[in-house]
Amino acid sequence: MTDLASAPTNSAPTTSAPQTALPTADSSADFPRHAPATDIPFQLLAPDGNAHDPAALPDPQTRLSLYRHMRRIRHFDERGWVLYRTGRLGVFPPFKGMEASQVGTAAALTSDDWLFPTYRDTGAALTLGLPIARTLAYWRTSPHGWHMPEHLKVLPFYIPIATQYPHAVGAALAEQRKGTNNVAMAYIGDGGSSEGDFHEALNFAGALNAPCIFILQNNGWAISVPTRTQTRAVNLARRADGYGIPGVRVDGNDVLATYQVTAEAVARARAGEGPTLIETVTYRIAAHTVADDPTRYRTDADTAGWAEKDPITRLRLHLLAEGILTEESDAALLKEIAEEFEAALNEADTYPEPEPAEILDHVFAEPTPQLVAQRAEILREVGE
Amino acid sequence: MTDLASAPTNSAPTTSAPQTALPTADSSADFPRHAPATDIPFQLLAPDGNAHDPAALPDPQTRLSLYRHMRRIRHFDERGWVLYRTGRLGVFPPFKGMEASQVGTAAALTSDDWLFPTYRDTGAALTLGLPIARTLAYWRTSPHGWHMPEHLKVLPFYIPIATQYPHAVGAALAEQRKGTNNVAMAYIGDGGSSEGDFHEALNFAGALNAPCIFILQNNGWAISVPTRTQTRAVNLARRADGYGIPGVRVDGNDVLATYQVTAEAVARARAGEGPTLIETVTYRIAAHTVADDPTRYRTDADTAGWAEKDPITRLRLHLLAEGILTEESDAALLKEIAEEFEAALNEADTYPEPEPAEILDHVFAEPTPQLVAQRAEILREVGE
Amino acid sequence: MTALQSPPSQTSTTRTMVAAINDALAIALERDPTTYLFGEDVGVMGGVFRASDGLQARFGTERVFDTPLAEASIVGMGIGMGLAGLRPIAEIQFAGFMYPALDQILSHLGRYRHRTRSRYHLPMVIRAPYGGGVHTPEQHADSPEAILAHVPGVKVVIPSTPTDAKGLLLAAIEDPDPVFFLEAIKLYRSTKESVPDGHYTIPLGKARVVTEGDDVTVITYGGMVEVSVKAAEAARAHGIGVEVIDLRTLVPMDLETVLHSVAKTGRAVVVTEAPRTGGFHSEISANIAEHAIDSLRAPILRVTGYDAPYPPFTAIEDVYRPNPVRVARAIRTVMGY
Amino acid sequence: MTALQSPPSQTSTTRTMVAAINDALAIALERDPTTYLFGEDVGVMGGVFRASDGLQARFGTERVFDTPLAEASIVGMGIGMGLAGLRPIAEIQFAGFMYPALDQILSHLGRYRHRTRSRYHLPMVIRAPYGGGVHTPEQHADSPEAILAHVPGVKVVIPSTPTDAKGLLLAAIEDPDPVFFLEAIKLYRSTKESVPDGHYTIPLGKARVVTEGDDVTVITYGGMVEVSVKAAEAARAHGIGVEVIDLRTLVPMDLETVLHSVAKTGRAVVVTEAPRTGGFHSEISANIAEHAIDSLRAPILRVTGYDAPYPPFTAIEDVYRPNPVRVARAIRTVMGY
Ligand SMILES: Cc1ncc(C[n+]2csc(CCOP(=O)(O)OP(=O)(O)O)c2C)c(N)n1
Ligand SMILES: Cc1ncc(C[n+]2csc(CCOP(=O)(O)OP(=O)(O)O)c2C)c(N)n1
Ligand SMILES: [Mg+2]
Ligand SMILES: [Mg+2]
Predict the structure, then answer these.
(1) What chains are in contact with A, requiring at least 3 Cβ pairs below 8 Å?
(2) Which of B327, C86, D8, D39 makes the best surface tag, with the fewest CB within 10 Å?
(3) Is the pTM of this model over 0.90?
(4) C255-265 and C280-291 helices, crossing angle to 10°
(5) In terms of residue numbers, what domain contains D319?
(6) Does residue B39 fall inside a structural domain?
């Protein structure tokens, strides 16, 4: 995503330019203070595709690239359902409606940066360049899906919630100590932000000035639990203020907005200014996973308003109006995306099944005597 | 402390009167919003003992009672050092300079409320009525110090940091579900507020509207680590905002101020309005524990300014100026306090030593067969 | 088989294990107004396995409620509720997600009675699905019972049948001390049996002899009971009498029943699905080696998971989890010794 | 005794265990610029036991630093640093405060190599003081090694002498996989010995035969080694030859050395200070019962802490922790069997 990473960024008015130092009893503070996140999420494009300030938008090529990524991951999401129903995927947590939240954030990175995605963030990983075939392998629970390509620093999707947050801080700190200007980005959900690891990681990153971007995708639900049961706070970006770091609340269905605030946060991190928390306000339109039945805990009325805020429609309307996209080029794009996907699927189909004893591979660099003996047990058993 | 608990409270301007609802993307919020805590700590008395607004002070009797408590726990602190040095105490974490922080907060409770103190909060427990003899027994590591009196809901001082925070939420929630209007109060330090449990507990309390008061005593140090290394935030009360609950920053060396903001928080909790976070800005003038050598990590210059802000001197000057206290009545008070302490010390000296097999008492209501066998082992051994 | 503790009602209903658990929870909530049920997704949705299906509708949002997503505080809050005289029942969505709560468990759950010299005690139950065999994602198939069993002051119960699940869960809820109640995911719906209606308890700390036999004792619990019983059946076909003991309760362990059987058979095999090193199987084995050495005619074999994480790779996860073939081989080995 | 792995320099210095650890840390920081040291109070203050005394002054605040007070993130951040190619050495102030980090340990520390199929591995060391005997406050004397040893993918090392502490710590730091390094508080300053200067390692996974004997094998580690040796000396006075084996490394365990000794003596006693049920002693015992049953002439006895929290009551804590008298009694029991 180097094309996007270097795109010009306009300053988002809602974010974190240091204020005049607030009066403080503790004059020892070494870092600038930031204004708490506003409640109204930062937005560049209205749902109807109109720009609030056309001059503030990134260049057309960047806009088109963001659109292409959203289309591409939407296609993965749609095919994911089908593949699951036909038994060609093990499980899959869909992200439909959250494309702007995942693309706009991941697109602000380069392949030298770290990405710590949750199970929900297939779209973010694809955006940063994770090959589709390997991504499919992951959701097929094949070991091939867990070995990430050497040219990326994308970690396998994390299942235990919030636990990868401190890892991102450590990776970011390591980059800082090594003197690179690479950053680390970690995703979490509204539910995940209730875990202690979330708090600790933000505080560590602030205290150690680690170049880390924390993306909190507030999609309204943690399985069956709505955000208002999860927390009394209505503005989760405000939590940043408790750690002395900037927090930004952004319209998670506006990819130009998510991209811009993230690019700014990344630029600050690269410049040695430390971490940022970004709350993308979005919605989980689909089920929690392909195996979940959301009618057990919510009604159609809950989701209705959000369908209209579809992030792809919004940017598409804009691009068509601006002439950056035409119906024809859009159709061609979809065709190309579908072809790429089917080719990757074919590739994934060629991955061999794992051998039984692979369950004992990769425990230690050198297998212990115990593991050597246990491997022999397995080989004896499967030999029977 | 029923005398104080019913004392009139004046509204502290810095605290948490609900604002006009802020504009919010999430209109589902059921609870009022609060203004974030200001950086300047709320104060009623200046260090020279002068009241900013004499009309805002509690009645003379309350002021005198708070003074008495501070004097009483300072005496304990001073005697604690001596007893340790003469081998009559096992360990002891002094709290000198933090008397206003502990007395003003604990005095806002009644004996029907819950108190979850850390090892630093001997003063708070004494203020709520924990008998001195039993408190001494605790610091002598006698089992007598761990069995808390039935008429109080004070828990033994907690050593593993921050871990008691969720317990306070649970106790508070239980009171709410039982329909009482009792509250729970839990203490923590600046260091402790970095632990995940702190975050989780505040969020749970907010989400469940538990009547819980969180006292964060920011005394500048976590053993050798200064608060500015602990966190990039300069205003820890702001963290409340991330959970949608009121946060208050108060001068932790002004007992009238700590008492007032706590009494207000307690009143809100009793009225069903939920939790509050109170940061008392104070200082650990003495060593971390009687066994610590602070010269290894700080200089006298670090502590110098704080000696002048002594909370007892401040209130004493005020009470003398107001004629609520005289030099004579002060001397009489000190004498009475010293006598009470020596009587308690004599009582503590009468507590018998524990029996060896007591290490296996109180594991389960009914000892398991394993414990029965292990007890027999012990008795055989000590019989030898 | 241990007798049920209150006379069960005359009637009974065919139930899966998860239905029996649901029934036990409903009975507890009905009988004791101080009982509270909470956790992630337990309220509106009735739990990801539907163990609490319908209970919020029946008992209200105060008694049965969803919490924020934070396991340490689910346990920690429960501890506070227990201190204040309630009977909290917490659900942890999967045993592999109990790890964030281990600090609360190790630092507090088992210590409150001890550190307050019985001024307070914690009548709390923590339920969690555990174990493999159903192709769940990463970390959803862990078996951390050995860790819990090493915590002084807590009990650990793992049922293997619907009837046991109901009776043991009611006993756990009525116990004055903290109890972990681990439920093998594999067993939730795989078998049904006739389960007595109404209230009854099965005492904690009493093992169940599932099959009798004179030649080999197999000691196991939870999801490994059916695996061991299948192996026992296969062995019987070869004339080997296998006594399968379902421990039911790891803490306190019914050592008497184990030793009685080993005294008879002289051979012991222990079976669990947890990783080999440091699993609870070793504790069982060590007890036999300490108390029944003279009876032993063969090594004590352990059939267990391996010293690797439970594999998130569906195609090969069955290699990890002990199956009847592996148990049968161990039985043959000790017979042939 | 296992040979040291790099030829130690000719010189040596009399050191306590904590001084030997400090020396090992300094050598590691000196030799490998990717080595980082951090934790609560390790920087400015040099650690509550002074294990890192002087190291921040020598290597700077980037390499040796104080963290905020949160153990989960101390371990979790270290994991991230390890992913990014550094060699993190984290200190947890007391092993009893490792509990908040258990989620990171169980969910991640041992799984990274496995879940990334060796794309990433974690060359991380987590040091923590453990164990009792010095009248510390509540939860400062815990011995949680059994829990750590049950985590697949991590190693567990517990030294018992200054020379071992230095050589094993350097080996742990140079190991490509995560290693727990538990240091018996009781031993920090209680004994001194001549410790080689400069760099050397002692290989992980090799036990040390401390005393030789033909009658009873005592298997132990860490703070219980000196206790067992005292008991062995007492036994020798009665003509009983006791072979004390210091495991040094719990994972991987040097079973060969243990079995070799038991084959000779026919009697085994295991000694640890952790609670009885589910302690690592049971794992040692189970291995012997599985692999050396024919040699055994007596039950395998366990001398351990009890199934209660380590008592915070100074006057009686010594009842909890095994002492030479208890070990000697177990030795006599297996001899008289
Ligand atoms: C530590 C932990 N606890 C519980 C779970 C089970 N679980 C999986 S997803 C989920 C809800 C997560 O909600 P949120 O963080 O909002 O992310 P979203 O699914 O909405 O993307 C839960 C409870 C888990 N995976 N990890
Ligand atoms: C979980 C845990 N980690 C570490 C410790 C060791 N320790 C005891 S006190 C302390 C510093 C606490 O600082 P703070 O929270 O500011 O409280 P204060 O001592 O200043 O009152 C530390 C690290 C502990 N007791 N518990
Ligand atoms: Mg969500
Ligand atoms: Mg402090």
Answers:
(1) B, C, D
(2) B327
(3) yes
(4) 60
(5) 208-336
(6) no
